[in-house]
Amino acid sequence: MKAATPMKNRTSLTAIRSCTLCLCVLLASCSSIPMPSFLRNPAAEAVVYALGPRDGFTSPLNGSLKPACPALTFESTDFKLTSAHQEALHSLAQEMLKNKKSRLLIAGYTPPNLPPDHARSLSERRALAVRQRLIELGFEAANLQTVGFGNDFSPSGPSSDVVAVYRQN
Amino acid sequence: MNARALLLILPLLVCHGTRAQAGVLDKMRGWVGLGGKSRTEEPKKIMSRIQVGTFSGGTGASAQQTLRQELLDSREFFVADAAEKADYIVDGTSSGGRVTGKLRDAKGKEIFQRSYAAPGLDENLKALTDDVIYTITGRPGLATSRIVFVSDVSGKRQIYICDSEGRELHQVTHDKHGAVAPSLSPDSSMIAFTSYRSGFPIIRLLDLNLGWERGVTDTPGSSFGSAFSPDGTHLAAVMSFIGNPEIFVSDLNTNTAACVSDSVGAPSSPSWHPDGHQLVFSSDDGDGPKLYVVEVPKKVGDASRLFRWRTGYHFCTDPEWSPDGRHIAFTTRTGGEWTVAIKPYPNGGVHVVQAGGAEHPSWSPNGHFITYVQHGELFVHDVRSGNRRSILRGYGRITEPRWMR
User: Fold this and answer.
1) For residue range B138-193, what is the model confidence (pLDDT) as tens digits?
2) What residues 317-336 of chain B have any CB closer than 8 A to a CB of chain A?
3) Shared domain check, B336 and B206
4) Does B370 lie in the same domain as B327?
5) Per the CB 3.0–4.6 Å rule, which of A73, B20, B49, B237 could disulfide with B86?
6) Is there a contact between B286 and B334 (Cβ–Cβ < 8 Å)?
7) Residues B326 and B271 in one domain
8) Number of domains forming the structure of chain B
9) Which residue of chain A comes nearest to B241, CA vs CA?
10) Is the pTM of this model over 0.90?
11) Partner A, chain B 365-404, Cβ-Cβ below 8 Å
């Protein structure tokens, strides 16, 4: 009976060591384990940039503005950017960033079948999502303005569920 | 079905109080997570009997007849004939369109005597009707109430105003690119709206009596969805200048604004609780708009509680608190079409008021009616009886009606 005690102690010591090692490995790998989406706080993901003064920006209602890229079409009532949007914005950034002073007005539109006030907010939110991506691609935040027209006005083009990016001079 | 599932369903079945009229699915939605006894059904109150007595003077006969009709239309009283007993008697004088009305109780004791000297006999009698209703019932009358709405009848979206019968129709805004999202101040003297006159959506105030107009917000991004606080001193609205659309409350005296929401999505349509301490609004965080309630801090730095208010529906917009604060009306979607529904606050069953494309509900000042639009037509719906009638049709596409609060 007496001889069995050190053996028992040794076994429990080994178990504690193994547990500690596993815990250390787990903690070390925590940063590389993606957190499930429902636990993530979307607000913490990116810095949101406030809009600068609107002086000098022209509305598409006051004159015909030249689009900087083909309008970004949204299929669902979502405001998240798809890979097609990301590609289009990447190409736009490559072209426009040659001129550091280029300014853009990002205008959101929605189809007429949505409740008007929700449509205004959704279109503005989509325009802000596009602006956020353009800032991440290197644009100056002060050179990007947004407007959400909802379904109060229709854009030129076949789809009314779009975000249009207009050049400003 | 196992015992645990049965235990979960039983309380829901016991607690439901829905009066939804749109089929089993809607009723089931009403049960889920609602609980509590529905407060939609109120005990029936006995109507007071009122008699319209003689009005002397040149326009007296006409005044007597019109007042009787106004009181009948209000459906607040049983209007008794001359030979019948009544709890109240209203009589007076009328000459040249002016009216002096006197309200007495059954014993002949005078309750009030007031003179009305607005240009027009009808206008004076409507004011008298509302005074009689308010004095006897404690609720505001609808005879002088107004509904504002947006119509594209002129080719651009502009704001119009009419009475609760759809008459006395006037165009309010003549903005270059249009004006939308109107909201009437509690005393009906001012309209807050979203103007596109600069090409960008900004919120402006228009004084209906004096005619002056001023901007409330001219911030970058968009501003829209304004709603007057019950005391008329503050304006809740959506602004996006901080880089994200959020609900702000602006003090109209100091022109300062405080953010009260914490959204990552698209908030819209704030509406005040009649106590002025809470706001309900819709917000879409990427999976469809839902309703949220936020407490408005009394002073800067105070903590406020923000929570989701569940309706059982996935898509909810345009919420509006009833004048007594006991219900919220909102737009939702059933069977792929817009539907106006009401739900007691904080708990109770959902009651579908009108399906088939009805949207953007707004309560009458007495809380008995709801106005909404259905396929561009303006309706007034009696919440108590379920009867409804179209008050304006063929006037372009009507959207965003708001009844005076």
Assistant:
1) 888 888 899 999 999 999 999 999 999 999 999 999 999 999 999 999 888 999 99
2) 317-318, 331
3) yes
4) yes
5) B49
6) no
7) yes
8) 2
9) A51
10) no
11) 399-400
Token duo for residue B48: 């007071």
Question: Whole-angstrom Cα distance, residue B361 to residue B373?
Answer: 8
With an 8 Å Cβ cutoff, are A122 and B266 in contact?
yes
Peptide bond before residue B401 is cis, with ω within 30 degrees of 0: no
Q: Which of B181, B198, B222 lies at the smallest CB-CB distance from A124? A: B222
Q: Which CATH number do you get for residue B387?
A: 2.120.10.30
The alpha carbon of residue A100 is apart from the nearest alpha carbon of chain B, in Å, by 21
Q: Is A60 on the interface with B (CB under 8 A)?
A: yes
- Identify the H or E element spanning A21: helix A4-29
Q: Do B199 and A58 touch (CB under 8 A)?
A: yes
Per-residue pLDDT of chain A (169 residues; tens, 9 = 90+): 344 455 556 666 677 777 666 565 555 444 344 444 445 554 445 678 899 899 989 999 998 899 999 999 998 788 999 999 999 999 999 988 888 788 999 999 999 999 999 999 999 999 999 999 999 999 999 999 999 999 999 888 778 899 999 999 7
Q: What domain range includes position B83? A: 48-137
Do B279 and B380 lie in a common domain?
yes
Alpha carbon distance A46, A135 (integer Å): 11
B61-96 exposure pattern, b = at least 16 Cβ within 10 A, e = fewer = ebbbebbbebbeebebbbbbeeeeebbbbbbbbbee
